[in-house]
Amino acid sequence: MADKTESPVTAGQEEEPLKRVNLYIATSVKGPGRRKGSCGYVLECPDRPPSAKNPMAEIMYIGETTAHGSLLSALREALGHVRSRCILTVYTDSPYIAAALSEYLPEWEKRDFMTKKEKPVADRENWKETAVLLNAAGCPVSVRLKEEHEWRNWLSWELEKRTSEGVKCDKD
What strand order describes the sheet that includes 86-92? Predict the structure, then answer.
Protein backbone atom coordinates (compact mmCIF):
# COMPACT_ATOMS: atom_id res chain seq x y z
CA MET A 1 0.00 0.00 0.00
CA ALA A 2 1.33 3.42 -0.92
CA ASP A 3 2.32 5.74 1.89
CA LYS A 4 0.08 8.81 1.98
CA THR A 5 1.56 12.06 3.18
CA GLU A 6 -0.35 15.11 4.26
CA SER A 7 -0.28 18.09 1.96
CA PRO A 8 0.95 21.37 3.48
CA VAL A 9 -2.25 22.93 2.13
CA THR A 10 -5.15 22.79 4.54
CA ALA A 11 -8.52 21.46 3.47
CA GLY A 12 -10.40 23.77 1.15
CA GLN A 13 -7.27 25.70 0.12
CA GLU A 14 -5.45 25.33 -3.14
CA GLU A 15 -1.75 25.90 -3.66
CA GLU A 16 -1.02 29.17 -5.38
CA PRO A 17 0.48 28.50 -8.80
CA LEU A 18 4.17 29.30 -9.15
CA LYS A 19 5.00 32.53 -10.93
CA ARG A 20 6.95 32.37 -14.17
CA VAL A 21 10.32 34.11 -14.33
CA ASN A 22 12.35 34.50 -17.51
CA LEU A 23 16.09 35.05 -17.30
CA TYR A 24 18.02 36.13 -20.38
CA ILE A 25 21.83 35.97 -20.05
CA ALA A 26 24.44 37.10 -22.55
CA THR A 27 28.12 37.97 -22.88
CA SER A 28 30.32 39.96 -25.24
CA VAL A 29 33.11 37.39 -24.79
CA LYS A 30 33.22 35.09 -27.80
CA GLY A 31 35.28 32.02 -28.65
CA PRO A 32 37.68 29.98 -26.55
CA GLY A 33 40.22 31.56 -24.25
CA ARG A 34 40.21 34.59 -22.00
CA ARG A 35 39.20 38.00 -23.33
CA LYS A 36 38.07 41.33 -21.92
CA GLY A 37 34.33 41.62 -21.94
CA SER A 38 30.99 42.21 -20.32
CA CYS A 39 28.06 40.12 -19.26
CA GLY A 40 24.48 40.94 -18.57
CA TYR A 41 21.02 39.72 -17.82
CA VAL A 42 17.39 40.64 -18.02
CA LEU A 43 15.13 39.13 -15.35
CA GLU A 44 11.41 39.44 -15.97
CA CYS A 45 8.14 38.15 -14.57
CA PRO A 46 5.90 37.95 -17.65
CA ASP A 47 2.76 37.48 -15.55
CA ARG A 48 3.26 40.77 -13.71
CA PRO A 49 2.80 44.26 -15.13
CA PRO A 50 5.91 46.26 -16.05
CA SER A 51 7.34 48.33 -13.20
CA ALA A 52 10.61 49.78 -11.95
CA LYS A 53 11.64 46.25 -10.92
CA ASN A 54 10.04 44.27 -13.73
CA PRO A 55 11.99 43.72 -15.87
CA MET A 56 15.27 44.04 -14.01
CA ALA A 57 18.43 44.34 -16.11
CA GLU A 58 22.12 44.72 -15.44
CA ILE A 59 25.17 44.94 -17.70
CA MET A 60 28.58 44.46 -16.04
CA TYR A 61 32.08 44.94 -17.40
CA ILE A 62 34.08 42.11 -15.86
CA GLY A 63 37.45 42.47 -17.54
CA GLU A 64 39.35 39.43 -18.71
CA THR A 65 37.37 36.22 -18.52
CA THR A 66 36.06 33.30 -20.55
CA ALA A 67 32.69 33.20 -22.27
CA HIS A 68 31.49 30.50 -19.86
CA GLY A 69 32.78 32.37 -16.81
CA SER A 70 31.12 35.55 -18.01
CA LEU A 71 27.73 33.87 -18.51
CA LEU A 72 28.03 32.17 -15.14
CA SER A 73 28.63 35.58 -13.51
CA ALA A 74 25.47 36.95 -15.12
CA LEU A 75 23.50 33.88 -14.05
CA ARG A 76 24.68 34.09 -10.42
CA GLU A 77 24.04 37.83 -10.22
CA ALA A 78 20.49 37.45 -11.56
CA LEU A 79 19.68 34.47 -9.32
CA GLY A 80 20.58 36.63 -6.33
CA HIS A 81 17.45 38.67 -7.12
CA VAL A 82 15.06 35.70 -7.22
CA ARG A 83 13.33 35.93 -3.85
CA SER A 84 10.59 33.32 -4.06
CA ARG A 85 9.89 29.95 -5.57
CA CYS A 86 9.08 30.22 -9.26
CA ILE A 87 9.25 28.46 -12.59
CA LEU A 88 12.51 29.71 -14.05
CA THR A 89 13.28 29.72 -17.77
CA VAL A 90 16.86 30.59 -18.72
CA TYR A 91 17.56 31.86 -22.24
CA THR A 92 21.16 31.46 -23.41
CA ASP A 93 23.17 31.02 -26.58
CA SER A 94 25.70 28.78 -24.81
CA PRO A 95 25.30 25.01 -25.28
CA TYR A 96 27.63 24.52 -22.29
CA ILE A 97 25.58 26.66 -19.90
CA ALA A 98 22.37 25.02 -21.17
CA ALA A 99 23.78 21.53 -20.61
CA ALA A 100 25.23 22.49 -17.24
CA LEU A 101 21.86 23.72 -15.98
CA SER A 102 19.77 20.90 -17.42
CA GLU A 103 22.12 17.92 -17.09
CA TYR A 104 25.50 18.42 -15.40
CA LEU A 105 24.62 20.38 -12.27
CA PRO A 106 22.84 17.56 -10.39
CA GLU A 107 25.75 15.21 -11.11
CA TRP A 108 28.34 17.79 -10.12
CA GLU A 109 26.51 18.34 -6.82
CA LYS A 110 26.55 14.60 -6.07
CA ARG A 111 30.32 14.49 -6.69
CA ASP A 112 31.10 17.74 -4.80
CA PHE A 113 31.70 19.55 -8.10
CA MET A 114 34.25 17.09 -9.40
CA THR A 115 34.16 15.73 -12.95
CA LYS A 116 33.81 12.04 -13.74
CA LYS A 117 37.61 12.05 -14.10
CA GLU A 118 37.83 13.35 -10.50
CA LYS A 119 39.08 16.80 -11.46
CA PRO A 120 37.46 20.01 -10.19
CA VAL A 121 34.73 21.39 -12.44
CA ALA A 122 35.83 24.58 -14.21
CA ASP A 123 34.61 27.60 -12.22
CA ARG A 124 33.85 25.20 -9.38
CA GLU A 125 33.18 27.81 -6.68
CA ASN A 126 30.92 29.81 -8.95
CA TRP A 127 28.93 26.69 -9.88
CA LYS A 128 28.60 25.81 -6.18
CA GLU A 129 27.19 29.26 -5.47
CA THR A 130 24.84 28.97 -8.46
CA ALA A 131 23.58 25.60 -7.18
CA VAL A 132 22.98 27.07 -3.73
CA LEU A 133 20.99 29.96 -5.23
CA LEU A 134 18.92 27.61 -7.40
CA ASN A 135 18.27 25.22 -4.51
CA ALA A 136 17.41 28.03 -2.10
CA ALA A 137 14.87 29.42 -4.54
CA GLY A 138 13.48 25.92 -5.18
CA CYS A 139 13.03 26.78 -8.82
CA PRO A 140 12.31 24.18 -11.45
CA VAL A 141 14.56 25.31 -14.32
CA SER A 142 14.06 24.96 -18.03
CA VAL A 143 16.56 26.17 -20.60
CA ARG A 144 15.96 27.71 -24.00
CA LEU A 145 19.06 27.44 -26.18
CA LYS A 146 19.59 29.95 -29.00
CA GLU A 147 15.92 30.86 -29.03
CA GLU A 148 14.92 34.25 -30.39
CA HIS A 149 13.61 36.68 -27.77
CA GLU A 150 12.78 40.34 -27.44
CA TRP A 151 15.89 41.17 -25.37
CA ARG A 152 18.54 39.72 -27.73
CA ASN A 153 19.37 42.93 -29.65
CA TRP A 154 19.22 45.17 -26.60
CA LEU A 155 21.57 42.89 -24.63
CA SER A 156 24.02 42.67 -27.53
CA TRP A 157 24.12 46.44 -28.00
CA GLU A 158 24.51 47.16 -24.27
CA LEU A 159 27.24 44.52 -23.87
CA GLU A 160 29.31 45.92 -26.73
CA LYS A 161 28.89 49.46 -25.38
CA ARG A 162 29.91 48.46 -21.82
CA THR A 163 32.86 46.43 -23.09
CA SER A 164 34.24 49.31 -25.18
CA GLU A 165 33.82 51.68 -22.20
CA GLY A 166 35.56 49.18 -19.90
CA VAL A 167 38.48 48.58 -22.26
CA LYS A 168 39.00 52.36 -22.55
CA CYS A 169 39.09 52.63 -18.75
CA ASP A 170 41.57 49.72 -18.55
CA LYS A 171 43.95 51.67 -20.82
CA ASP A 172 43.80 54.86 -18.70
Answer: 56-65, 35-44, 19-27, 86-92, 141-145
Structural domain total, the chain: 1
Which amino acid is present at 46?
Answer: P
Contact between 28 and 163 under an 8 Å Cβ cutoff? The reply is yes
Instruction: Give the Å distances, CA to CA, from 15 to 8, 20, 21.
Output: 9, 15, 18
Residue numbers of the domain that contains 150? 19-103+138-171
- What are 101-134's pLDDT values in tens digits? 999 999 999 999 999 899 999 999 999 999 999 8
| pTM greater than the 0.70 cutoff | yes
Here the CATH number for the domain that contains residue 85 is 3.30.420.10
